[in-house]
Give the backbone structure.
Amino acid sequence: MLVLTRKKGQSIMVGDEIEISVVEINGDAIRLGIKAPRDVSIYRREIYEAILEENIRAAGTAAQMAEKLKKLQFSPAPAVKKKEKDNTDIVTAQESVDRSQDSE
């Protein structure tokens, strides 16, 4: 770890695009200003760790859900024919798809 001493108003550069400045010193608290490109994420450490924990938890939940979905057995919906008042058949959406594929 690199340790530097800076006074109020002084800054350090991280690479060519990130500047960290000492804005204020109040007892043992230091206010920092950070200039960085918008695509660089900047978080306080405790927030960053909370985000990591949540991502790990969400990934675990997604993996569990995927396993549950793999175990489900799916069967096609039964064909349903209904009669209109004039005694003509109503074709279900699935039958319509099946018929269009048969005609190709």
